Automatic annotation (TrEMBL):
Keyword Phosphoprotein: no
Domain HTH tetR-type: from-to ranges: 19-78
Organism in which the protein naturally occurs: Streptomyces himastatinicus ATCC 53653
Region (Disordered), start-end ranges: 1-20, 202-236
Record keywords, A-Z: DNA-binding, Transcription, Transcription regulation
Protein name: TetR-type regulator
DNA-binding span(s): 41-60
Species lineage: Bacteria, Bacillati, Actinomycetota, Actinomycetes, Kitasatosporales
């Protein structure tokens, strides 16, 4: 599975049984957050994971910690799909960037059960690990779009936030949609979106390009240090 690769987390390895318990808790949390929202009772999540509530609290001291971990796994999944799309965009042929976008959107649909957070809502997190993951995601998607513009395959008035919003919308079907329609409907919407990305559209997209709040965040490694911020001393 790619979604856990290249995590920026650096933690001591867990015992195999602890790792299994943690994954059961995360799987149960995703399922219950999808059904009931992030206010789902932690006791019910522990019961669904077939672990004690003490085990849940040992791994996640509070609801925010559990939500954050679910969100980070979601971001890692999106990052893996964005990087896979970036690889496709670098392939030969003028249509490679559009195939890359299709790869990203299709991947989001296929992985939707892992994207309850962040694509389906929930609390916002702004710590360094989350900021770095989000910048890596938008960086890969901007590279896909840049390659598309270079090859004349993608219109010039879309950005990575447009792609992320499309992935979120397409990945979350309307309530009561028959299960047998989910994949077909999603792929129809992906096809519509791909046609809309092609250059030569009759209408320019209205309004300014969308800007998500996290697009204004800067990872610590990219922030200027004290020396860069200090005023330059001028000597006579």
């Amino acid at each position: 599975m790619r979604d856990g690769q290249d995590s920026i987390r650096s933690k001591p390895p867990m015992r195999a049984d602890a790792r299994r318990n943690q994954q059961r808790i995360l799987d149960a949390a995703r399922a219950m957050f999808s059904e009931q929202g992030t206010a789902a009772p932690l006791d019910d999540i522990a019961r669904r994971a077939n672990v004690s509530i003490a085990t849940l609290y040992r791994r996640f001291p509070d609801r925010a910690a559990l939500c954050r971990h679910v969100a980070i796994e979601g971001y890692e999944t999106v990052l893996a799909e964005a990087r896979a799309a970036q690889e496709v965009a670098e392939e030969g042929g003028p249509d490679a960037p559009l195939r890359a976008v299709e790869r990203f959107l299709t991947g989001a649909v296929d992985q939707r059960s892992r994207l309850v957070l962040p694509l389906f809502g929930g609390p916002a997190f702004h710590d360094e690990e989350v900021i770095v993951l989000r910048h890596r995601i938008t960086g890969s998607l901007e590279a896909v779009l840049a390659r598309g513009r270079e090859r004349g395959a993608v219109r010039d008035d879309v950005n990575s936030i447009d792609l992320l919003m499309a992935a979120a919308i397409i990945s979350r079907p309307l309530p009561n949609t028959p299960p047998e329609w989910l994949d077909t409907t999603a792929r129809r919407h992906i096809a519509v979106h791909l046609d809309g990305l092609r250059p030569g559209a009759i209408h320019h997209l209205p309004g300014p390009e969308p800007e998500h709040a996290f697009s204004r965040e800067t990872p610590a490694a990219a922030r200027p240090g004290p020396a860069e911020n200090a005023p330059t001393e001028h000597r006579a």
